[in-house]
Amino acid sequence: MKRLLVATALGAVGLASSAPLYAGGEVEVLHWWTSGGEAKSVAELKKELEAKGDTWKDFAVAGGGGETAMTVLKSRVVSGQPPTAAQVKGPQIQDWAAEGVLANLDSTAQAGKWDSLLPPVVSNVMKYKGHYVAVPVNVHRVNWLWANPEVFKKAGAKIPTNWDEFMVAADKIQKAGFIALAHGGQPWQDATLFESVALGVGGAEWYRKAFVDLDPKALNSPTMEKAFTTLRAVQKYIDKDAANRDWNLATAMVINGKAGMQIMGDWAKGEFTAAGKVAGRDYICAPAPGTKGAFTFNIDSFIMFQQKDASKQQAQRDLASAIMDVHFQEVFNLNKGSIPVRMGMNLDKFDQCAKDSAAEFTASSKSGALVPSFAHEMAMPPAPKGAMFDVITAFMNTPSMTPKQAAEKMGAASGKKV
Amino acid sequence: MGEPYRTQTAGSHLIGRAVIYTLLVLFALYYLMPLFVMLTTSLKTLDDIRTGNLLALPVQLSFDAWTKAWDSACTGVYCGGLKGNFLNSVSFVVPAVIISTLIGAFNGYVLTMWRFKGSDLLFTALLIGCFIPFQVVLLPMAQTLGWLGIANSTAGLVFVHVVYGLAFTTLFFRNFYVTVPVELTKAARIDGAGFFTIFWRIILPLSPPIIVVCVIWQFTQIWNDFLFGVVFSSGQRQPITVALNNLVNTTTGVKEYNVDMAAAIIAGLPTLLVYVLAGKYFVRGLTAGAVKG
Amino acid sequence: MNQPAGGASPALTRARRGIADYVETALPKIVLGPTLLCALIFVYGFIAWTAWLSFTESRILPRYDFAGLVQYIALFANDRWWTAVKNLGIFAGLFIGFCLVTGLVLAILLDQRIRAEGFLRAIYLYPMALSFIVTGTAWRWILNPGLGLEHLVRQLGFEHFTFDWIVTPGMSIYAVVIAGVWQSTGFVMALFLAGLRGIDDAIIKAAQVDGAGPVRIYGSIVIPSLRPVFFSSLIILGHIAIKSFDLVMALTGGGPGFSSDLPATFMYTFAFNRNQIGLGAASAMMMLMTVVAIIVPMIYSETRRQRHG
To answer: Which of B124, B261, B286 is closest, CB to CB, to C191?
Structure first.
């Protein structure tokens, strides 16, 4: 009898200890969301993770839209101590995966049914050779036109729906004494403006061939020349103080009624909200001229690095599933000004611009007009993207460069694969 | 030196003084302008900045930006301002300055008092280290620190700063000790004093001026460094320059210029104070021979 | 002289002295050793590592398979690289030149027994204490035509005043010079001031007695005896010019376009942002070879001269 008791006791102890007690792992997360609004958004993720028993070790490095963070990331990987997760987007995900340092997220993806919740355009970017290696956080729409209705009324202009109408409206605004297009002469802003021009002039099919496939025939083409010609015409409506101006100072010009329009992604909405402006009443959000029905996306995502520690691996899985979670998607994007990447969510809490954006996102993914933003590193690797940036800014700063020359250089830029 | 040359008449002397003072004031304006911009911006409200001229005085004086910068600004998920990072910087700057100064002093001593064949060539070889841009050594250093196991720690940062500070500290001390007559050392050796004795008893007491110069230089360089700080530290242990960068260079967030400027001044205060207060000793130290042959 | 204490034998004393002498000769080298080791590994070793990488096809992370001169060919065919090289020549020349001249002039002026010398000196010195984020942001605003100096002067009534260098592709590098000179002149001034104060009064007085005017005194006696100061300043300014990365990034970001790019910013952009480490390494090697070609002979000749001088 005593022997049976001891055996049972031992067995019970054995059972209890064989199920490992999950004490929570640590996730070190590299990101560049350091402004007040962005920090609030990331804090949501931190809360969710801590609710699951994990700890969040913050590793924020601002600057250049992640450029400094990428330097730090490379150094950390080289030193053999990669962070658990890092904010990396677009084709860079595949570059990192090719180095063999990323963790496989398929199990979490299957459990969360990611394939059915993400458009194929998006999930392809998150995969390497068919396996999930990254998890998307939000969707920014880049091809927006932000307008001040007061300025338009005073100038007697109407919101343009294509680039020809743009020239007409801009002329009227300029004659009324305002600046037609608020812009900041930084390479990424030049490229953001250019890609909306290119999309409006050439359409989604050509855009894809040129900027995703990097087809030299599509790049060095009459369509590209037309895009640059249009850009040259648009340049007339930018004020001469635009060089190196920060994007939010350009938005301020629209908010203050000094300028009529800005072509910028949906993070501009944050500036309007911070200034107490209401969508539809104090400012108008419209698709960039000629791009109605098309959606240029910029998706922030996190890649996960392979970890040796089992608790860290579990924490990574927790992080990935938390990011795709309905609650997080809602709260994060409300704070950030973007829309959830998870399709089919209830968007009652979002403002009109966000709702329009979400509707277009689903519609364009079905119609084939959902394209990655090349200005925001979603379409091509950094090397050709950088080379194309050089061409665009050179074009905008060198009045003597012709659209034909620019188109030729764009063709050459794709081939740079050193 | 310092006697104005009284070879002119009283009148032209006055004009001469007037010219000198005017030039000095004009230069002073050139130097003070950015500080003025920073200070006034940090005391404005965001509305004032949005609507006003950047060189104008604040319409409504407000110290909110300063408290926010120190206490509650967001530098990532953590929104506690710069105060924590201030201490982080101190924790590695102080050891790095002390160690690199000490080693530099010994090196300078050896290169001037204990010359051997080829020591000049070695000194030149050492000076090349002054010119290496840090970006070039970033990746190999990351790999090395990874092997040594100190990649993501205060010890790693101290190590890196000491290594790349040695060229300068050696330069300063060597140029200073070159002015001290070698006979002093030779006589002491004849009297039986050893290597370290001569250093502690004879050379070190002569050194305060150059020690001040070296410490000021190293402190400024290491405190203001960004690149090594951002790569070799993380999270709560980031130095103040990294936190400042996170504050100022947000990409798609709303920018608060007044907080940015207040934070920049806070981050620069220690070095500013060092230069302003110790400036006199700095020049004195340099006078005592840091720059002569 | 060194009589052995107590009853030690002469042989033991000789042995002790032998060891002591050996230690005395070795000790300096031992003390210098760690520094030299550091230089060997962390300066020369890393240069060699970079050199190796410049012969590979490294992209996002280092790879070590030899690939010939492919990166150098690409480098020399790159427009942006040549712009960066030209800019370095302009920037370094102007920056060093203006800092030396301004530093010397300010030092001479301050040396004239000025009231408030300490105060003025602090004003000239403080910029060196600040970090690049601070100086870059502040100067970016001041040099911006619509917001800064041009705007202010126009408001004062000079309608046609233009000062838009920072936004003009051909002139942006000169804007960087202005901010760079602002930051570094103070230090050079301090060096020269110290040098001036170290000049022997007797020589000056003798020249004055002989009837030499101030110009003659400065030209023939003062400035030549400041030669070591020029040397030290050149090293410090040269090192700042070559390393000038933070200032350019904060002030112009390399722009407009890439017209104010410098080799240091070029190397960083291509190695870290464009995932072309191989190309970045090649540009770094070009930078370093230029430094060696110019600086090394200068340093060596000055060092030897100082020894005999």
So the answer is: B286
ipTM above 0.95, yes or no: no
Flag if A37 and B79 touch (Cβ within 8 Å).
no
The total number of residues written for chain B in this structure = 293
Q: What domain range is A98 assigned to?
A: 23-140+298-357
Nearest to C296 among B128, B141, B163 (CB): B128
Give the mean pLDDT of B2-8: 45
Q: Are residues A145 and A32 in the same domain?
A: no
Here the tokens at position B278 are 């110790």
DSSP H or E stretch at residue B15: helix B10-42
Question: Of B227, C191, C156, nearest to A68 (Cα)?
Answer: B227
CA C144-C148-C150 angle, to 5 degrees, is: 85
Tell me the two tokens of residue C261: 């790019």
Question: Which residue among A335, A357, A379 closes a domain?
Answer: A357
Q: Structure pTM?
A: 0.80
With a cut of 50, say whether residue B290 has pLDDT above it: no
pLDDT for position B251: 60
The answer to whether residue A258 sits within a structural domain is: yes
Q: Which residues of chain C lie closer than 8 angstroms to A385, CB-CB? A: 274
Is B235 near chain C, with CB under 8 Å?
Answer: no
* Domain match, A74 and A50 both: yes
A263, part of any domain: yes
Per-residue pLDDT at C308 exceeds 50: no
Tell me the two tokens of residue B200.
């502690």
Q: Regarding predicted confidence, which is higher, C251 or A347?
A: A347
Binding partners of A (≥3 Cβ pairs within 8 A): B, C
Are A67 and C255 within 8 A, CB to CB?
Answer: no
**A169 and A117 assigned to the same domain:** no
> Residue A16: pLDDT band by 50, 70, 90 thresholds?
very low
Nearest CB to A63; choose among B76, B77, B249: B249
Contacts of B255 in chain A (CB under 8 A): 35, 246, 248
Residues A353 and A280 in one domain: no
Q: Which amino acid belongs to residue A230?
A: T
Output the domain CATH number for residue A62: 3.40.190.10
Average pLDDT, chain C: 80
Kindly list the residues from chain C whose CB atom is less than 8 angstroms away from the CB atom of residue B219. none
Residue A61 and residue A115 in one domain: yes
**Structure-model confidence comparison of residues B45 and B287, the more confident one:** B45
List Cα–Cα distances, C217 to B17, C202, C220, C224, in angstroms: 18, 12, 6, 10
